[in-house]
Amino acid sequence: xxxxxxxxxxxxxxxxxxxxxxxxxxNLKYIKCDKPHCLLYFTGEEELEVEITLKExxxxxxxxxxxxxxRSSILNICYLKDLIRHxxxxxxxxxxxxxxxxxxMSDIQPLLKSAPRLSPxxxxxxxxxxxxxxxxxxxxxxxxxxxKKQSEKE
Length: 154
Known about the structure:
The protein is an alpha+beta fold. It has a single domain, classed as CATH 2.40.50.1020. The chain contains 4 helices and 11 strands. Strands 6-5-4-8-7 form a 5-stranded antiparallel sheet. Strands 1-2-3 form a 3-stranded antiparallel sheet, with no helix packed on it. Strand 2 and strand 3 form a beta hairpin. The chain starts with a strand and ends with a helix.
């Protein structure tokens, strides 16, 4: 049975094996792709297998909180623990390590620094649910569409 995902502002509805699973973006730790399937890893050791392309996922996930680290993986920035530069590895809070592509390695610092943060978060936006998260990434598509400030346009 073909799976499908419907993306919303704060969560996604995943139709898999006859069941519908509604999951928050903030609880999605990372995604590993092994064509034609992708495994979505959530907090609480839960994982769901879906038939979707990595491109379709990265195009629909909130850009503020997720990054593609190589050809087969997408990471939630809230769950990053450590960057190991000399070996081009990134370690997640659960200990899982991912190899970074050369392009991502060269772009990683600006990417991590440019991740939007609000402190305190506004009531219209949804932030990472991990209370120990230093990033407090904003999971809200509206944030991406806010008009740029005059200094950012130049």
